[in-house]
Amino acid sequence: MKKVNVAIMGLGTVGGGTYDILTQNHGYIKSTQGLDIRVKRVLDRDREKALGRGVPQTAFTDNIDEVVADKDIDIVIETMGGVEPAKTFITKALKSGKSVVTANKELISKFWYELEPVAKENGVGLYFEASCVGGVPVIRTLTESMQANRICELYGIINGTTNYILTKMTEEGLGYETALREAQQLGYAEFNPSADVDGYDAVYKLSILSSLAFHTTIPYKNVYREGITRITADDIKSARELGYVIKLLAIGRRDGNKVEARVHPTFVPAEHPLASVRGSFNAVLLTGDYVDDIMLYGRGAGARPTGSAIVSDVIFCAKRRSHDYTDFAVSETPQAGTEIVGDFTSKYYIALTALDRAGVLASVAKILAESGVSINTILQKGNSGDHATITFLTHKAGEHAVMGALEKIGRSEYVRSIDSVIRCL
Amino acid sequence: MKKVNVAIMGLGTVGGGTYDILTQNHGYIKSTQGLDIRVKRVLDRDREKALGRGVPQTAFTDNIDEVVADKDIDIVIETMGGVEPAKTFITKALKSGKSVVTANKELISKFWYELEPVAKENGVGLYFEASCVGGVPVIRTLTESMQANRICELYGIINGTTNYILTKMTEEGLGYETALREAQQLGYAEFNPSADVDGYDAVYKLSILSSLAFHTTIPYKNVYREGITRITADDIKSARELGYVIKLLAIGRRDGNKVEARVHPTFVPAEHPLASVRGSFNAVLLTGDYVDDIMLYGRGAGARPTGSAIVSDVIFCAKRRSHDYTDFAVSETPQAGTEIVGDFTSKYYIALTALDRAGVLASVAKILAESGVSINTILQKGNSGDHATITFLTHKAGEHAVMGALEKIGRSEYVRSIDSVIRCL
Questions:
Q1: A333 belongs to a structural domain
Q2: Is B205 a catalytic residue?
Q3: Which among A87, A110, A205, A247 is annotated as catalytic?
Q4: Which residues contact A207 (CB under 8 A, 6 or more apart)?
Q5: If you write DSSP's letter for every residue of B294-335 in order, what string do you get?
Q6: What sign results for the dihedral spanned by CA atoms A286, A288, A294, A299?
Q7: The domain that contains B272 carries what CATH number?
Q8: Would you call B293 helix, strand, or coil by DSSP?
Q9: Stated pTM of the model
Q10: Dist. CA A51–CA B224, nearest whole Å
Q11: Coil, helix or strand at residue B189
Q12: A111, A73, A326, A84: which is closest to A214 by C-alpha?
């Protein structure tokens, strides 16, 4: 029976869930995996909380150096979150010859290029399945099941908070603010919800997942980001009328050396597999050149699912005598030869308010046509006084062309406002 | 750069797909995985076909002993299908110190207990991700991502042929025979479709998957099996009216030492994630005690997806210096302490034709009630002459109780026929 000693750094929600699995399923893991995994150390600032959760006095520490100096510890689990002190602590652990398992998406997406070389130099592992999409095994599927494939597309609903809010807006007709408040009351959204609703969380995850999928660095700074705060009940209604639902999608695409990586609200066709991913559930659709589509669906957050992903990394790591390292997570910037495309193509849903007068629609269409953007479906909706709301879907067009045309349209005297611009799958 | 030499035994559909990936993505796999994988030998009966597919003269052989004797070959891929000669060939390969990757569900479900000990004795690997659900990484998810979890439930649409037929019946109102013929014309169903439509294929897969999920032998002979040949257009219509779709589900459940394993047509609620799995796509929903639900969706068959699963096993195997062995796949019969439950509980959809006369429904309900089966929803449908079709859903009840009650009902003078008995999720 192989003995494995681990330390947990940070006994918050995810660290607590991890502690629970490792203690409650200890015997089960021992009998099915042949590994006797002991939590030898728990590092936290709050001794009382840790002891209250059942951590033995002898296991508790608030000093990283005690973890690092302990030769018996094989694997360090980092569940503190945020960049510092997690980065310093992980670096110390790697340098002391311990493998690290982390759930820290912000840290990995920002400093993978610093941490990976340290792991490699010291011959230890750096695992972070739990950093992306909680309990859903997206990273393991990319690295252990789709390895033979060139991956060309990745579409994900990878933030549960925004999916919960959009689902509430779609199914119950709530406005954004009401749905957000409900998510906050249920603990799905933070008091300051920006990391979720502005798309940062999804950007971190997409930067990690698309780097792994495309075997090239996609820095988080190069991921296009747009959150859901401007989505209105009218947008949701229009989407439904046109046969779509609105989702915050993370999109990665590769075509040769050209890569797209973007997070934005998206019209998803109602019959698409991702359209039926509701509430706080997450899903990722991956397309490989041989395996075609694989969709993975499950709980993208929470103590128990995320803890499950962490312990699966611990077991995976403990069974290996050597670890894999990437050849791409070594730079803060895109690799030479990889072009991260900003001027991607998409279909667009556009809503604007204009004077309710003959010829206005023709003028709008003319400006779009001059930019090479053609209209697919028009849905002119009710008018109020002398103004009308015009909504339409375009055919596929370039991002820059559409934005250029909309700038011109926005300046024209007969248009009062451009209310919505939402990309379509 | 690690060199890996493989042999492919059987250059049919899946073997051909595997050969294509290994040759066409050779450079990609080399650069991203650090493995130089060469197909050194291709074993087949048909030399001309193999050479026509691009296999070099020097690589071709029709003699297993040439493969076994070749010390350079590290991994043998078996894509012949069927029990013999695959079993003999795999055994020889394992005994000669070569790891084996196979797509052979029938062989693994029937003789895993013989092959696994041979692999273990010789310290080599036996991998079979491709045997279950084609390109969908169900086995890897069970063994490498959900290892920390006690798995309590597994629901799968794991046969593409039957799902294609049922989808056609559902979406186009086709009868079973017409949908089957269409599936045959498209190559989704064999000329003799029994292995698929009678549920044998799904039984083999469920026996493997539920054994892995529950860490105990679930022999294929102990899996309850019922195919789709008796599903009628009326059943499909009734299902829709009641808010369900009919799917051939593979169901595995564990509660302590009690295990259920069954394959049968099932009423699946229309809003359930498995209900929207259409056509030849497959999906498996796994529930663990910590991770909760994970659903995996993709192509369950075909040369390229199944080839992708095989090559992922080859890469996974090639990177390991030691291999995992189960403690349960060592017996042809269920392990002591594991009870495979035949008298499971379920809700049931029942359709019968009876005399159109007052009191008939009350008599039916009375017999059911005496057996402890209570009716949830009644949907009495049109009558023809003096007979009426009565359809209803029961509450949860025991299989034996329901079957016993139906036998009595079937014998009663006012009932002409019991037309459908379909279990509900």
A1: no
A2: yes
A3: A205
A4: A109, A218, A219, A220, A222, A223, A261
A5: EEEEEE-SSHHHHHHHHHHHHHHHHT-SS----SSTT-SSPP
A6: negative
A7: 3.30.360.10
A8: strand
A9: 0.96
A10: 49
A11: coil
A12: A326
Is the same domain home to A167 and A125?
A: no
Looking at the structure, tell me whether residues A246 and A143 fall in a common domain: yes
Which residues does B141 contact at the CB level (< 8 Å), separation at least 6?
A137, A140, A141, B286, B294, B296
Question: Are B67 and B154 found together in one domain?
Answer: no
Is the CB of residue B425 less than 8 Å from the CB of residue B414? Answer: no
Is B44 within 8 Å of chain A by CB? no
Q: Does A286 share its domain with A369? A: no
How big is chain A by its Cα radius of gyration, in Å? 24
Any domain includes A233? yes
**pLDDT tens-digit map of A138-187:** 999 999 999 999 999 999 999 999 999 999 999 999 999 999 999 999 98
Q: Which of B147, B317, B325 to mutate to probe the A interface, most A CBs <10 Å?
A: B147
Residue A337 lies inside a defined structural domain of this protein: no
Q: Which residue has the tokens 């046509």?
A: A369
The answer to whether the CB of A111 falls within 8 A of the CB of A83 is yes
Q: Which of the listed residues A264, A298, A332 is the one where a domain comes to its end?
A: A298
d(CA A372, CA A365): 10
Determine, yes or no, domain membership for A328: no
Domain membership of residue A354 as a residue range: 345-424
Looking at residue A39, its amino acid is V
B260-301 pLDDT, tens digit each: 999 999 999 998 999 999 999 999 999 999 999 999 999 999
Q: Are strands B415-424 and A258-269 parallel, antiparallel or unpaired?
A: unpaired
CATH number of the domain within which B57 lies: 3.40.50.720
Tokens of A194: 């920006």
Burial class (CB in 10 A: 0-12, 13-18, 19+), B176: buried
Interface list for A 125-144 with B (CB within 8 A)? 129, 135-137, 140-141, 144
Q: Which residue, chain included where needed, has tokens 């309710």?
A: A356
Residues of B within 8 A of A296 (CB-CB) are 294-297
Q: Which of residues 281-300 of A touch B (CB under 8 A)?
A: 283, 288-299
In sequence order, the β-bridge partners of residue A154 are A252, A286
